Inverse folding.
């Protein structure tokens, strides 16, 4: 079958399926919206009620898409053996034949180096077990700006390189100007070293992939030459806070059904999520370079969420973007705290709103235009929900305080009675709950009764308890997320931009102070909102309690769900709540990672100057200084006189006033020039006994 | 009198080889003690085993003292001279026999095709330049909506843009698989 025919075949199938989805979503939305209009006091006759119904329709359409996607996934998984359009099941493995050269890329930005390199070592070790590791090279592409972390990365790269006895060649590159952030980092790799490689697997700093899956992905790309990007479904794993455990459980329990549904209607127009995906380098280089958007951030400037755009561009160039939904061995870490999750969402919401500017880009396929819209709606829907609730509150208050107009159209034979139908509202509420929670129930039925995998979740009882707990917690957290997302959207539209902050992955929990600062505004709003409604329309107040209640209790909820090990997370673990396959039978890659982490840590702690910070160590420790200078030796040593004089001045400052006298930017400047680092190293060791020598940590 | 280069006696301080050494040390014992400590610490940080470290330290101090003896004035800062001497000894290859120092010395050594100094792996493979040029120009949200409402073609904004945009879309392209 020719490639064109192959494309046409799935495109026809996709069109049919998408039309079917559109019909289902439309029917559900029109039905529910009509019902909503009838349930309102004036049956949708006033302007306010028309607006309420429009907002309701938008929100209902939004949740219906998720519902019908899950339903599609449910029916696909009921038919055993067919889960994904592209079949990547292990039994299709095409053996140990030669593979094209593939680069594994791990872009890092001020991440914990020990965690990064223990992952590098684990993935490499897992690849070695496949016997195919000679076809892979590993690139750690650092955009790190913290001088201490920068040096620690170099030390750990060297330590990992010494420990790994593998055919995978580990490389390390540090980029000083962080142009275009992660997408610029990948583009920089492509420009410099992309051409010798046929494929690249893009990872995140918290990614972990099994060697078997990596090999299988390369094989699939070789089998089907029309695939441009093959995205795996990363399963969150490895964290212990209650929030993280719930997300990990949900991904294991509901994820397969939802992704099967996504694959059902996306097919070759799937999303690229920016990591744990394999990319064909040549077309990526040719078609997926990102421009800088006109105007200033937040909606202009560099494209922040590059992945969706790259997928759209790859597809525009005629290559398929597919979801490998039946390939396991792909993991990531969830955010450990609620605040960290919301900070990440702030970043994503800005990126996704930028996508609206690409909605009308010529040549982009309709499916990807929809995905741009879908990505933006993930956050805009929160604002729509907030507006809907506000309008409903205004309506409820108006019903009480306004004198009813029985003859709105002037003199008439019969008055127009405002009729409030709370029982209709109950039916509508139940329908909404079905749309929201039925997929979760069906997922559990699928896992427990059809696939008979209850033991992977701790048994029947555990599965039921965990699903119940997850539904309760997601209901509790939904208003908190809604308010935060709404705030982000408003801030972005007002022109507030955010910087590029590294993701916090440590499980230190959230202090009461942090939680109070983050959630105080929402708490006050909920209390005032609730009090006003309680005083004016008590019947409506009870409808708002599930939303205003969690908002008023946001601080304790945020602290509670984010608590690290030993608290809520471990409590749930002890009681076998939220257990998933990765808890009951941890994947070997996790053990490899832990083992490598211990080994690297031990190697680091053996060093004489292990107690010093990264930059100080690069100055003082002769091994580290030499390593750093060797890594940076490509840097052009011919400098402009003014730059050389400035660097000489920094060296003098460091020697006369100690490391604390140097600002972060000054440390980075020195680290960028090995000649001056070497000179500083010599001068520091020659310092006479005294305070300055002690501040550098050299023996006095 | 010239000080003979020799190993320190068992149990004796490195700084007490003979009378001349005593004399030099007496001028500023704290400075020489610092030299000894620094050199030993430096070698330890390089991962050189203690016995070899003592040997190298002895050689460093001996050479530094000799230099001190050759000049009329005592060395103002023997530590600076000691560290310079240490670097000289290390670069002469004294440390090459110790595995851990190979990577450390790599950048100071002349690069060789083979040999222990090249044990450090390459940081990056050779650069093979490619190119990535953005070939699309995203439009704003308002303009296309206006064009849509006025039945004008989306993307046909200006002559300049028309010339820059290459024909793209679902049609088969030359490099399409």
């Amino acid at each position: 079958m020719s490639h064109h025919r192959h494309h046409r075949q799935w495109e026809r199938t996709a069109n049919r399926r998408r039309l079917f989805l559109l019909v289902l979503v439309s029917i559900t939305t029109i039905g529910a919206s009509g019902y909503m209009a009838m349930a309102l006091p004036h049956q949708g006759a006033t302007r306010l009620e028309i607006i309420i119904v429009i907002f309701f329709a938008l929100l209902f359409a939004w949740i219906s898409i998720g519902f019908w996607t899950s339903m599609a996934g449910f029916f696909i998984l009921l038919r055993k053996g067919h889960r994904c359009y592209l079949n990547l099941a292990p039994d299709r493995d095409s053996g140990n034949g030669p593979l094209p050269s593939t680069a594994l890329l791990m872009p890092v930005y001020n991440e914990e180096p020990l965690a990064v390199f223990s992952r590098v070592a684990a993935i490499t070790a897992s690849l070695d077990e496949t016997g195919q590791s000679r076809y892979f090279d590993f690139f750690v592409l650092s955009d790190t700006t913290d001088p201490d972390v920068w040096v620690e990365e170099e030390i750990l790269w060297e330590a990992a390189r010494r420990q790994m006895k593998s055919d995978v060649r580990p490389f390390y590159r540090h980029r000083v100007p962080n142009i275009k952030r992660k997408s610029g980092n990948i583009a920089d790799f492509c420009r410099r070293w992309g051409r010798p490689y046929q494929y690249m697997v893009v990872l995140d700093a918290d990614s972990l992939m099994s060697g078997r899956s990596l090999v299988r992905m390369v094989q699939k790309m070789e089998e089907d030459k029309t695939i441009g990007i093959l995205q795996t479904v990363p399963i969150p794993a490895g964290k212990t806070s209650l929030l993280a455990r719930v997300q990990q459980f949900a991904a294991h329990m509901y994820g397969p059904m939802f992704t099967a549904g996504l694959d059902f209607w996306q097919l070759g127009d799937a999303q690229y999520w920016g990591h744990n995906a394999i990319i064909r380098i040549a077309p990526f280089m040719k078609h997926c370079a990102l421009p800088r958007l006109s105007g200033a951030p937040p909606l202009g400037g560099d494209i922040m969420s590059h992945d969706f755009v790259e997928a759209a561009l790859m597809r525009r160039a005629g290559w398929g973007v597919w979801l490998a939904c039946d390939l396991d061995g792909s993991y990531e870490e969830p955010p450990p705290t609620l605040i960290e999750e919301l900070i990440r969402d702030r970043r994503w919401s800005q990126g996704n709103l930028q996508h609206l500017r690409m909605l009308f880009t010529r040549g982009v396929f309709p499916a990807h235009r929809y995905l741009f819209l879908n990505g933006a709606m993930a956050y805009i829907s929160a604002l729509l929900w907030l507006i809907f609730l506000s309008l409903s509150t205004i309506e409820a208050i108006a019903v009480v305080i306004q004198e009813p107009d029985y003859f709105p159209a002037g003199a008439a034979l019969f008055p127009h009675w405002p009729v409030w139908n709370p029982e209709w509202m109950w039916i509508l509420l139940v329908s909404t709950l079905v749309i929201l929670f039925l997929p979760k129930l069906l997922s559990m039925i699928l896992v427990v009764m059809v696939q008979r995998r209850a033991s992977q979740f701790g048994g029947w009882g555990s599965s039921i308890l965990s699903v119940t707990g997850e539904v309760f917690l997601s209901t509790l957290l939904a208003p908190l997320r809604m308010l935060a997302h709404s705030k982000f959207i408003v801030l972005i539209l007002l022109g507030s931009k955010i910087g590029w902050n590294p993701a916090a992955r440590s499980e230190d929990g959230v202090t009461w102070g942090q939680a109070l600062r983050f959630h105080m505004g929402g708490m006050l709003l909920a209390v005032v909102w609730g009090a006003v409604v309680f005083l004016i329309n008590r019947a409506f107040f009870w409808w708002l309690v599930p939303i205003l209640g969690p908002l008023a209790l946001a601080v304790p909820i945020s602290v509670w769900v984010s608590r690290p090990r030993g608290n809520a997370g471990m409590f749930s673990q002890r009681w076998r709540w939220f257990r998933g396959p990765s808890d009951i039978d941890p994947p070997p890659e996790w053990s490899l990672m832990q083992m490598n982490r211990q080994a690297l840590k031990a190697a680091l702690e053996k060093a004489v100057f292990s107690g010093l910070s990264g930059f100080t160590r690069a100055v003082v420790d002769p091994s580290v200084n030499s390593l750093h200078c060797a890594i940076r030796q490509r840097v052009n040593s011919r400098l402009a006189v003014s730059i050389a004089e400035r660097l000489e001045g920094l060296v003098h400052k460091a020697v006369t006033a100690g490391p604390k006298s140097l600002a972060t930017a000054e440390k980075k400047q020195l680290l960028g020039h090995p000649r001056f680092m070497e000179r500083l190293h010599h001068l520091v060791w020659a310092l006479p006994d005294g305070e300055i020598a002690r501040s550098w940590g050299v023996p006095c | 009198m010239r000080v003979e280069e020799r190993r320190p006696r068992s149990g004796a301080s490195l700084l007490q080889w003979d009378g001349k050494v005593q004399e030099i040390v007496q001028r500023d014992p704290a400075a020489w003690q610092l030299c000894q400590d620094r050199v030993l610490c430096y070698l330890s940080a390089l991962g050189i085993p203690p016995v070899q470290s003592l040997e190298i330290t002895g050689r460093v101090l001996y050479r530094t003292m000799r230099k001190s003896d050759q000049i009329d004035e005592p060395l103002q800062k023997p530590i600076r001279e000691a560290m310079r001497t240490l670097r000289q000894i290390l670069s002469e290859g004294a440390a090459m026999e110790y595995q851990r120092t190979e990577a450390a010395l790599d950048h100071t050594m002349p690069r060789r095709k083979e040999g222990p100094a090249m044990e450090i792996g390459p940081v990056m493979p050779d650069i093979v330049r490619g190119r990535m040029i953005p070939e699309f120009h995203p439009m704003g949200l308002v303009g296309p909506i206006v064009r849509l409402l006025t039945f004008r073609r989306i993307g046909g904004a200006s002559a300049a843009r028309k010339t820059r945009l290459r024909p793209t879309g679902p049609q088969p392209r030359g490099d399409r698989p």
Observations:
- The CA atoms of residues 46 and 104 of chain B lie 7 Å apart.
- The longest helix of chain B spans residues 50-70.
